[in-house]
Amino acid sequence: MIGIEPLTAAAFAPFGEVLDATGEPDRLINRGLCGRWHDRAQLDFVAGGRAGISLFRARPRSLPYRLEMVERHPLGSQAFLPMTADPFLVIVAEGQQALPGRIRAFLAAPGQGVNLRRGCWHGVLTPLHEPGLFAVVDRIAPEGEPPGANLEEFWLPEPLTVA
Amino acid sequence: MIGIEPLTAAAFAPFGEVLDATGEPDRLINRGLCGRWHDRAQLDFVAGGRAGISLFRARPRSLPYRLEMVERHPLGSQAFLPMTADPFLVIVAEGQQALPGRIRAFLAAPGQGVNLRRGCWHGVLTPLHEPGLFAVVDRIAPEGEPPGANLEEFWLPEPLTVA
Fold first, then answer.
1. Where are the domains positioned within chain A?
2. With an 8 Å Cβ cutoff, is B150 touching chain A?
3. CA distance A36 to chain B (A)
């Protein structure tokens, strides 16, 4: 069984960046009416890929959550930006080797997104509430790249319970 | 006075893309549990810039809204992805010339973001509700670029009322 930790920048640093508007903004724009927290994600797209914006809508899960598989994207970072103010689960695994290491689960608070480092093992998108809607900034493959070139899956020998 | 139109892909096409998860997804992923509306924004960053993710938090406005200025970014597209399910105003102007053309105002529904084409004249970010929180995908300037190289402003001869 895996406990759920609060999502903080420090705890999440091995896996990527927490994307939120906490602390002072880097800049004030629009005559002081808007704060800008500038360039908060380390976008990293290799092998001819480029950044793109897609929408994901995932079926909400409930707790306890049964984790059977983790995946990763060897060719690009992946940012999940919730389009509703609902918490969601972020499941990651330590280590960047061929086998995932210790699994961790974080609860993203309303107003928090994440950017997963390229090659970070992670669970699939797990909203906890309808509509499960996210904007995703990840790698768009160049034409002709074989499907699946940017996806590795690892099925756990035994499912884990996240609660 | 400018009336407010619903935000649809067809009406907004001259200005950029509506980013939402309507219609059938382009792909089903995660064993059918997640739809992917793939690569929906025309990201366009020139002159050494690159894509980045920033967070904006803007003070909510109320209607009628007094529009005094439009701006544009000659060096890059700019996507606004709301992180709450609240509608917000999207004000744009027709034409890509040095002087903005006819001004239009759209109401983005919950679950809708926009990507503004490079060079599109637009009003500053105008949420209508707290917390006014958005993820923004726009151009990150290369080091050494003069501040303001990617910003032009046009002050209207007379303020317009948007309602």
1. 4-157
2. no
3. 5
pLDDT digits (tens, 9 = 90+) for A142-151: 999 998 999 9
CB-nearest partner of A41 from B52, B56, B58: B52
DSSP state of B40: -
CA pair distance A162, B19, nearest whole angstrom: 32
pLDDT by residue (tens digit) across B17-34? 999 999 999 999 999 999
Using the beta-carbon criterion (under 8 Å), do B53 and A137 form an inter-chain contact? yes
Taking the Cβ of residue B137 and every Cβ of chain A, the question of whether any pair is shorter than 8 Å is answered with yes
| pLDDT tens digit sequence for B92-136 | 999 989 999 999 999 999 999 999 999 999 999 999 999 999 999
Distance of CA A111 to the CA centre of its chain: 14
CA dihedral A152, A156, A157, A159 (to 10 degrees): -160
Beta bridge partners of B51: B139
Round the average pLDDT of chain B to a whole number and report it: 97
State pTM to two decimals.
Answer: 0.97
Fold of B4-157: Jelly Rolls (2.60.120)
d(CA B156, CA B23): 38
Distances (CA, A) of B17 to A78, B104, B116: 21, 15, 7
Residue with tokens 């529904």: B109
| Kind plus residue range of the DSSP H or E element containing B16 | strand B16-19
How many CB pairs below 8 A link A and B?
146
Amino acid identity of residue B124, one-letter, is V
